[in-house]
Structures are given as C-alpha cells and as structure tokens.
Specification:
The protein is mainly α and 521 residues long. It has one domain (77-511): Amino acid/polyamine transporter I, CATH 1.20.1740.10. 64% of the residues lie in helices and 1% in strands. The chain is built from 17 helices and two strands. The chain has helices at 6-9, 54-57, 62-78, 101-112, 120-153, 165-173, 175-213, 224-238, 248-271, 288-305, 312-316, 328-357, 366-374, 380-417, 423-443, 451-474, 481-511; strands spanning 22-24, 30-32. The protein has a two-stranded antiparallel sheet with strand order 1-2. Strand 1 (22-24) and strand 2 form a beta hairpin. Mean pLDDT is 81; it is low at 1-59 and 511-521.
Length: 521
C-alpha cells in the first residue's frame, strides 16, 4: 500500500476560469456567441445550478467541489439558459450587449419626447380642460403599464430573449399571424416617423435660417425641398454609427434638447399676454358628426404622443442578461426615470399651451402658435435657440427610429450570405434608407400632418398588443380578474385604434385640419 500523504495522492491542477465564447463583429467589438443547451421543463423554483448547492457539495472532496463551484459561477455569469442566435452578433440592435440603465433612460427619453408632443395643445382645443386632462392621464398610465408588460416579456420563456417586437408577436400569435399583426405597424411607425422627422427638421432649419438671417438678409435662400435634402444628408452622416449602443450619446443629446425646448416653449407661452379673444370651450363645428370625428382625431393626437414601445424590446436587447442579473431590472429602472421626465414635459406643455392660446391654438402646434402670436415680443435669439434645439432633437430621434429599419435590411443580407455586413455594405444600406425617406417626404409632404391618423394606426403597438401577448404567453387562469383585465384592455385598444384612424382620415379630408408643423411665409 502506498504510504504517501493524501495530499500527494490527489493532485489536481487548479481549474482555469472558463470564458464566454466570442466572435468578432464588423465594428471590432466582441460579442458572446453561445451554443444553446436543450430546452427542458423548468419552474420558478428550479434552475440547472440548484443541485450545485453547499448541501450537495458537502460530502464531495475539495478538488471536485472546486470544479463544480467554478462551473456554477460560470453558468450563472453567462446566463446558463439563454440561447443566443449567432446572427444577432452581426446585427446593429444586438451587436453590442453592454447597455445599462443609463443607456435605457437615454434611449427611452429620446424616443418618447419629440415633435409630436408640441401638438398636444391642439388636442386640448377640441377636448377642453376636463376631457383633455382625463384622456392624457389615462393614456399616460395605460402606456406605462404596457411598457412594463413588454419589459417583463423580454425573457418570459426560459432560454429565449425576444430582442425585437416582431419576435415577441410571433411567440404570442404564431409565426405567420405575428408577422402580419406586428410588422406593418412597427415598420410604419419607424419609417413613417423617420420621414416625418425629415419634413419637420427641414422646415425647422428653413425657419431657423430666416430668423438668424433677419429681414435685411440679401442671400438667396434654399427652397424647402433643398432644406429637406440638407437635413437628410446630416441624418445619413450620423447614421454611420454602427449599433444601438453606439448612439447612446446621441440619445442623451436628443433627450436633453427635447426637455429643454419643450420647457422653453411652454414657459415662453405662459409668460406672454394671452390673446384677447381666447376661449377654453371645445371648438364648435357645424355638425354633430364633425364634432365626433374631430374628438376622435384629438384622441389620436394624444395616442401618437406616446410612441416608442416599438423600440422597448430592442433597447432591452442591448443589455447583458444572466441568471443573477436579468436585463429587465436595469431596463425598468431606466424606463421609470425616463417616463417621470416625460410626464414632467408633456403635462406642462399640454396644459400651459392650452392656457396660453385656448381654442386659438395653431393646428401646427404650440411652437407655431408662439411664433405667430409673439414673434415680435420675444428676442430673435431666444426663438432661434428653440428652433435649433428642435433640429438637433430631430436628428437624434431619426437615428433611434431608423435603427430597426437598418436592422431589417442587414438581417436580410446576413441570412442570405451567412456572413456579417462589411462597412461598405452597411453604409450603403443606411444611405439607401435615408434617401428613401427623403423621396417619400418629397412625394407626400403632408405626412407630418397626420398625427391623429398615425396615432390611430400604430395605437395597437402601444396599447393593445402587449395586453394580448401577456395573456397568450403568461397564460393566467381563465376567467380570473387578470385574464379579463388584459383581454378588456386589448380589445379597447383595438376599438380606439379603428375610431382614431377614422377620425384622423375624416379630419384630414373634410375639415382641412392638416397638422403641418410649420407654415413659413
């Protein structure tokens, strides 16, 4: 028998720390590319590392215990259940997964506040004080709840991350029906918002130039279409940033400018003398039908003010997620901060704008009303600053709303070629997307006036589909309060979508209420 000490009988070298497999993305960033394990049945109380517990390890020798403890730490660090699609490491939304709560707040603020907020006083002109406040409050808390639903459903199924809104819709409604229900409104919202931003940004740049240049300016100014082209070129230059995380700085700039100009506009409005013929009664229209459709259009404007849910899952997809640190925690922390600031901007803007102008509110929104009523009372430098902030915000918003479109183009390319996009291919796609939006804007220059219609058509993305998806994925007990509550919210959202869309079309065609953002003289 060997009389050597026990320490010499068992000599196992220290186990090296296992690292996450990585691949090199087109931008030089490293991104995890894991092979998934077979999915199995799981519950809320069991995980694959449950057996690797101190009680289980107590009878095992020290070397083997060290191996198992290291394996447990590795599994919990990299997210032991999550399957990562290798193609995701090549696409701009999921290429970089180093996001955090700060990035989530920046992106959510940038997507949630924009030019559409300046139209809220227009809705109050048709609804009045009571119904305007009630509608805005209900819409705010409703969309905040559906945002929480989307954040929770991002990893609702063990082993799967739904990185895009369409992916979650497919999981809930089925592969084919999910695409039909979610693809059109999300693409329409992203592409339509991008086109509207080109129109708004170009027209704002033209007005900014007129204010800075002054009445004695002798230069030959650009036409409106040429200003659209200038703004589109700036958008294309900024769009060369590779992925969603790389535009976090731009989103911060967009959020700061949106908060600044929205605060400036309502403070300047309430600080000036109100028009003498102001009234706070809802705008009277000749027929009852006209009044009903105008109210529906006004509610659509309020719905359009709460956009950005089509980007919630995409923003959350940029965050790392492990068993110990799931992505929904920092995402919801950032979203809460963002929506507190959004409420602090939207409510004063709507209430202050309606108090300052009442039913004399310009159909283009509070900034148009400020320029029309008080352009001679406010210093040119202050007005020019407000318009410049709008331009910067539009440039920032264009990037985050175009990112899903860029992602779709690149997904089609990588799925066919089975390789990542080169820098030149990626740049070509983004130039193409920018000029497509430009040509649509030139062909349909009234697109920026369809706030009510856009709000109606895209309302299910924010208010209805998340409720349906919660029931279909979480499967609450049938006929329980939870079950009835979500089905009711979902069907109400669909009904409101139809009503608001009809109201938007009627108001545009019959009432001539074209919500043109600026009408330069």
């Amino acid at each position: 028998m060997d009389e050597r000490p026990e320490a010499e009988l068992v000599s196992i070298p220290p186990t090296p720390r296992m690292s996450t497999p990585e691949i090199l993305t087109p931008t030089g960033l490293r991104s995890p590319r894991m092979g998934g394990s077979k999915e199995g049945k799981s519950s809320t109380t069991w995980t694959p590392t449950s057996l690797i517990s101190p009680r289980f390890l107590s009878p095992i020798g020290t070397p083997m215990k060290r191996v198992l403890v290291n394996m447990k730490g590795y599994l919990e660090e990299v997210g032991h259940l999550t399957k990562l699609n290798p193609q995701d490491a090549w696409l701009p939304i999921t290429e970089s997964r180093n996001g955090n709560a700060h990035y989530a707040a920046f992106h959510t603020l940038n997507a949630g506040i924009g030019f559409q907020a300046l139209l809220l006083p227009v809705a109050f002109a048709f609804l009045g004080w009571s119904w305007g406040i009630i509608s805005l409050t209900i819409a705010y808390f409703w969309q905040l709840y559906t945002l929480w639903i989307l954040v929770q459903l991002h990893e609702a199924v063990p082993g799967k991350r739904y990185n895009r809104y369409v992916e979650l819709a497919q999981a809930a409604f089925g592969e084919r029906l999910g695409v039909w229900l979610a693809l059109f409104p999300t693409v329409y919202l992203s592409a339509g918002t991008g086109t509207a931003l080109i129109l708004v940004g170009g027209e704002t740049m033209k007005l900014f130039f007129q204010i800075v240049c002054g009445p004695q300016c002798s230069s030959n100014p650009l036409s409106t279409v040429e200003w659209y082209l200038v703004f589109t070129s700036l958008c294309i230059v900024l769009s060369q940033l590779p992925n969603l995380n790389s535009i976090a700085g731009l989103s911060l700039v967009g959020a700061v400018t949106a908060i600044t100009y929205s605060t400036m506009v309502w403070i300047l409005s309430v600080s000036q003398t109100r028009p003498p013929t102001i009234s706070y009664q809802p705008m009277a229209l000749p027929t009852f039908g006209a009044s009903v459709f105008s109210v529906m259009n006004a509610l659509g404007i309020i719905a359009f003010a709460f956009r950005g849910h089509n980007l919630a899952l995409e923003i959350q997809a940029t965050m790392p997620s492990t068993f110990k640190h799931p992505a929904h925690v920092p995402m919801w922390r950032g979203a809460k901060i963002a929506y507190i600031l959004i409420a602090m901007c939207l409510f004063p803007l709507a209430l202050g704008g309606f108090w300052a102008y009442g039913n004399l509110m310009h159909p283009g929104g509070i900034l148009n009303a400020l320029y029309g009523f008080h352009k001679d009372d406010i210093q040119r430098g202050v007005l020019a600053t407000a318009f410049l902030l709008v331009v910067i915000n539009c440039l920032s918003c264009f990037q985050i709303y175009s990112m899903p479109v860029f992602d779709s183009f690149e997904a089609g390319y990588t799925s066919r070629t089975n390789r990542p996009c080169s820098i030149w291919v990626r740049s070509g796609f983004r130039v193409l997307c920018g000029f497509i939006s430009f040509f649509i804007g030139v062909a349909l220059p009234f697109l920026s006036s369809l706030a009510g219609l856009l709000g109606g058509l895209t309302l299910p993305v924010t208010f209805a589909y998340p409720c349906f998806m919660w029931v279909l994925i979480k499967k609450p007990q049938k006929f329980s309060f939870n079950w009835y509550f979500h089905w009711t919210l979902g069907f109400l959202g669909i009904a409101f979508s139809l009503a608001f869309s009809i109201g938007g079309i009627w108001s545009l065609v019959n009432s001539g209420l074209k919500l043109k953002f600026f009408s330069p003289n």
